[in-house]
Amino acid sequence: MEQTNSNVTIGSLFRNKVIRTLLLSTFFLQIGIWVRNYSILLFVVEKTNEDPVAVSLISVAEFAPIFLFSFIGGTFADRWKPKLTMIWCDFLSAISIFVVLLALVLGGWKVIFFATLVSSILSQFSQPSGMKLFKLHVKEELIQMGMSIYQTIFALFMILGPVLGTFVYQRFGIDVAIAVMGVAFLLSAGILFMLPKDYELEESTEQTTLMQEMKAGFKYVWNSRALRLLGGSFAAAGLALGLTQPLAVFLVTEQLGLPKEELQWLMAAFGIGMILGGGLTVGVAKKTPPQILLAIGMSASALGFMVMGFSELFWLTLAAEFLSGLFMPCVHIGINTMILKNTDSAFIGRVNGILNPIFMGTMVITMTASGWLKKTFSLVAMYETTALLFIIGIVILVPLFKHNPVLKKSEEA
Predict the structure, then answer these.
(1) Rounded to an integer, what distance in angstroms lies between the CA atom of residue 78 and that of residue 236?
(2) Using CB atoms within 10 A of its CB, is residue 155 exposed (0-12), middle (13-18) or buried (19+)?
(3) CB 217 within 8 Å of CB 347
(4) Which of 117, 317, 336, 391 has the most neighbouring CB atoms within 10 Å?
């Protein structure tokens, strides 16, 4: 494997066909996902007279598959050919969307939840396959910068996605919105045909069962010091974010004494910070080890939440949100790059399938408890605890600060 080249540029990044194809596919996927999220949300709110149970079921359909299918999907992603897996996942998502459209035309509106559920399940198979393609086809020195561009697309859609989804639904209605989703998924599938042909993996002389491969995945993560520590840092970050995520509106109404509608400006500041941060991180990423990048992002988050907890000034809270957003790409890019550089291609899916539920599971635990904790403790205490948990996550990473997975992998190659 090639040593890291200090002359890596954006030009060399976009000359890589795999990166170009994955980024273009992701662009159309994001259109489909955000139109899905907001048009279905608005449709269900309208159909059920703002029934909170029906609205909450949308989130269940979106996030439950992460717990139920993430590790299973990751294991199958390691078994199957990644290009073919991604194409089939996007194609089946499109088919499920058109089935929902047909049901809507026939009058069965409740099947709308099926659209979110199916595409969310399929993404648990597709996402680790995309990571595997990065590992197989992208040079070590391009991975981190490629991840920077990848995260910038996600950040951009955090701002534009809600606007796009709301516009399509309000202007054209649910039928057209559903059709847009289906076409977006089909375009993504079509673009993925431009990827290089899947490698023919060597057949193992010893046939293994799905359960044996799952156990091997857990053993692989446990035996890797870098991945174990990353899992611990994941858990701390998940606990931190879940603690305050449902409380942002109280930060506006109680801490700042403003109408709840002002929350949109805090979200906008965070999103704008993410877009700018994604662009800035492209330049920094090629020179900074991923574990340092992750620690920088978590440090900025800790500082941001600390300021938000104490601040009673709108502009200061706005600045703290912007700071957190500005460095959030460092967190995402650091995590993905660490996984890719510390994991053999044969285990990419399973490692993703183990680490992602750790983050989501811990986040859901504190999200569930946050309402009760707010009644017991002050809002300030909640935000300062979040900052402390981020600091704990950084401390867990400290042993990896001198770790160089690129050289290690190079020597092994």
Answers:
(1) 27
(2) buried
(3) yes
(4) 317
